[in-house]
Amino acid sequence: MTETARPLLATPTAPPEPGPSGRLLARAALLTAVLTVAGALLGLLRDQAFAHVFGADTDTDAFLVAWTVPEVAATLLIEDGLAFVLVPAFSLALAGRGRRPGPDPVRALVAATLPRLVLALTAGAAALIVAAPAVVAVLAPGLPRPDLAVDCTRLTATCVFTFGLTGYCSAALRGHGRFLAPASIYVAYNVGIIALLLLFGGAWGVRAAAAGVALGGVLMVLVQLPALWRSWRRREPAVVLPAARRPARPTAQALRLALVAPVVVFALSRQSQVLVERFLAAPLPAGAISHLNYAQKVAQMPMVLSLMLCTVTFPVIARALAAGDTERARRRVESDLIVAGTIVLLGASVVVAGAPRIIEVLFQRGAFTVHDTAATAAVMRVYALGLLGQTLVGVLARSYFSEARPLWFPACAMLAGLAATAASGALAVPVWGAPGIAAANALGITLTALLLLWGSGRRSMALPSGWVCGQFVRLVAAACGATAVCWWGASALSNPVLALVVGATAATLVFAVMARLLRVREFCLLFRPVTRKLWHAR
Q: pTM higher than 0.85, yes or no?
């Protein structure tokens, strides 16, 4: 369907009423979203505690180099790589219980995989501890305190072992249809870090935060063991999916390297954006890496909130594609793009307009000075320019990987964005410093988003990229108006909290009005019942 033939207010096809497994997935997705938000809020509290105790200096830069280890380990061992292999394997083993004579297939799977995984994780953690000096030299050449970074890296290296066990337990529990414990792991993780920060930060320095990472990894495993033990003792069967959603050959699909490799490459390439940033920031003045870290963590909050919707709707897209209903999947992705884009652009307008006030409220206390606030706010405003690209990549990547077949295009698009980030960052850093790194990040992720959007129009789902771009041009225009109003509100009052409340409220109202006037589809659908009531009341 071409853009001109497409009705502007076309209502997405209503999905059928979910069956029992659909309701289970909806509840699990909602629970995961709530606990993810709780973990993100604790992560923000962790960053506040870190800034209060240590500020932003050479010591915090050293720790943040070591922080790369848990960031990469979480991507590979918890969130993507290991989960894509083990969750289908456990689901298949649970489905086979009682269907054939012989040993329990779940216990056979554990016996075949867990000992080897423990051995590999132990070797990996030990190797990283030994090679910590070389790792620090590669990640951040010219760092003022490499000795401190090495100490912190050796402490955080333990998470290679604990995160691997965490990912294994999470996969087993999800295979059993249990989602509460896996969704709570980051709550436990951040609690461990915050506890050691507050208890030993004064005596141990930033090594307390590194030790908190090690403790948090242990807590991530422990919080799942009771639920895993109950599931093991009860020998519960798996939650059987509807026939339309079951893959034809789950074992081959789950364990085949060709299916997992593109996802791992995509995830590592996306995570490598942070590695490039820290590599480029290492020669900059003390505190630059810390300013980048604080700015990125706060600026990404709108993106995290916007992608909560995708967590809930991802099973709907996968179910529709498995059933061959590409039209329903396409409409769902279109709606997700517009709604997620609305949330992130509104959040970005508040971040850009109120950056100094936000950083002042969150971090300006203790060792975090007025200078740190100004530097972090300047970087955060530039980071916000890439938030839309980050959100589009998150939404579109889920639509690609929901097809459950090897797809290398998302990984290639991510590698292209990473190359753009590295090249533009190398050129921008000598001129603009840390804000130049943030600008390079925004450029690279936006390139990836455009490539994924372009590729989506050439798949079986046939996403109308021209129409989607037109909708986003209107949303960006609405965000510009919201930014101007929020800027006025954030600077009109002396109290920073009140100024942010006034600015954010005004930005929300202006954004909604402009989006409706510009005829953004979801806003037309939202306000259409009100218009009809007013028309009939005349």
A: no
